[in-house]
Structure formats: C-alpha cells, structure tokens
Amino acid sequence: LHRNAGSRxxxxxxxxxxxxxxxxxxxxxxxxxxxxxxxDKVGLLDERFQIGYYEDVDFGLRxxxxxxxxxxxxxxxxxxxxRSMNTLRPRELGHARNMNLAYLKKKWGLK
Length: 111
What we know:
Layout: E1 6-9, E2 15-16, E3 23-24, E4 26-27, H1 36-42, H2 55-65, E5 70-71, H3 90-108
Antiparallel strand pairs: 1-2, 1-4, 3-5
C-alpha cells in the first residue's frame, strides 16, 4: 500500500500523514488522478525540481492557490514501486531529495 498518497503541508516544511484528512494539500505523484482542465489551470511540473521528490507537493500547492482541491480516496492505492526512482543510486537520491526540499521551502516561504 502506498504510505503517502497525500498530506497536508505544515508551516515548517514537513507534512502530516493522517488518514483523517481526506482533503489534502497535495497528492503523491505516483497516485495522482487529475483532469486536463486541472493541468490547463495549474500547468506542468516545475522542471527546476530534480527527479523524485517534492514536485508533487509543489503541484498540489499551486492547485490549492488557484482554488482547486486535492482529496485522498479510500481504499488506499497499491503501488508496485517507482522505476524512475530506482535509476538513481542512494546517494544521488538523497542529494535530489535535499536539493528539492530546499527549493520547495524557498519557493513557498517555508521554514
């Protein structure tokens, strides 16, 4: 089961992972289901993010800023694992995660 289908983003840059929040700030990119209208309004992914982390959070926050809502449905989604993520070595993945988090915090004014 996908352990992070979506979350709310806290002011300090982390997130809350509670199934008690069906409406969330973002939906994990591996489980997103969005219409063409959504993409027309929000745009595509920000290419300044490296592969793997936080581009889904940014997309969700941009959607929310435009008045769109994100929801996590029930039951949870089964996810077999990310193939694109497996192309990176652990050190590269850690670097991408850290760089993307720093960029997300700067872009959205998170601490």
